[in-house]
Amino acid sequence: MVETLEIPQEILDSARLTVDEAKLELALALYAQGRLSAGKARELAGISLWQFRQLLAARRIPVHMTVAELESEIVDLQEAGDL
Question: Is 59 domain-assigned?
């Protein structure tokens, strides 16, 4: 079952946010609280994992990942020739 979250336009206007910006802010906040993984948060935000990680760094939000996630990222970087 899919549920929809409705945010009144006046709330978005007061916060000076677009719908996409509100989704991004929610994703970052939930990730920072440890309530969403990076993958799910970037999915909510509608951006790539790389873009999400850049935003975390820019906002100084600590990255938390499992050993398996770290190992997977290392393999990805090696395959891309970036490590």
Answer: yes
> pLDDT tens digits, residue range 9-62?
999 999 999 999 999 999 999 999 999 988 889 999 999 888 999 999 999 999
In a domain, 74, yes or no: yes
Q: Is residue 16 part of a domain?
A: yes
Q: Do the beta carbons of residue 50 and residue 17 sit within 8 Å?
A: no
Token duo for residue 56: 């975390």
Report the alpha-carbon angle 5-49-58, nearest 5.
90
The whole-angstrom separation of Cα 75 and Cα 70 is: 9
Query: Does this model's pTM top 0.70?
Result: yes
Which domain does 45 fall in, by range?
A: 9-79
Distance CA 13, CA 1 (A): 29
Number of domains observed in the structure of the chain = 1
